[in-house]
Amino acid sequence: MSTVAAFVRLDALTVRPQLRSYLFLLGMGVLFGLMLEDSSSVIAISVVYGILTSSYAFAIEDKDGLSVLYGTLRVPRDVVVVGRYVGALLMFVVIGAVSTALAALLSAFQGETLTATEVLAVLAVSFAIFAFTIGVQFPLFFALGYTRAKLLAYLPFLLVFAAVVAFTQAAPDAQSLPAWLEPSAGAGAVVVVTSLAVLVASCLVSRRIYGRKDL
Question: Residue 192: how many CA atoms within 13 Å on its side-chain side?
Fold first, then answer.
């Protein structure tokens, strides 16, 4: 596990210069929250931007040929795969905490009431979107590399967008999914556990793919 932690730190140092752009995206999330007059939307929007930044490590690896370096340093392939997923999870935790704090500040500024159940519901739905997108993207990146897979990697975003539009068209008067989850801790727990299962399954697929890949 210490080897995985070391790889996560290495990845963090690798992408750190690129993460500055996320501060701009985070600011855009706050701006959208102001425009929509919905402070909780800051959380969901920030997570979507976070998904985009989670691919930075793959992009830099492709550009600079870091896979060869990993081989030279004798970094086990399982460590590379697990480290990427652990790093993505840690990124979600950090983004979730920061965006929740910003949403609370925005709520106070706008005179809204942002309840803990609302925040938890939005985080649960955001985590589901995060898990589904990462679960599809990462195996593609490990199989094809970032450059060849980046167009396919947008497929999860299109599917999520299509699902939201379909839900809105089918039930225009229905509550949003976060609102539906608010009164039910059990439903939120099911969403989180299912999302974790998706990530574990995706990680196993990625390990199998990357373990057989010629570098």
Answer: 15
- Read off the amino acid at residue 212: R
Asked whether the beta carbons of 52 and 46 are under 8 A apart, the reply is no
Q: Report residue 97 CA to chain centroid gap.
A: 13
Per-position b or e across 134-158, b if 16+ CB within 10 A of its CB: bbbbbbbbbbbbbeebbeebeebbe
Range of the domain at 35: 2-212
**Number of domains making up the chain:** 1
Tokens of 95: 């983004």
- The pLDDT confidence band at residue 184, using thresholds 50, 70 and 90, is low
Q: Among 132, 106, 129, 111, which Cα is nearest to 40's?
A: 106
pTM: 0.84
- Tens digits of residue pLDDT in 110-134: 777 777 888 888 888 889 889 998 9
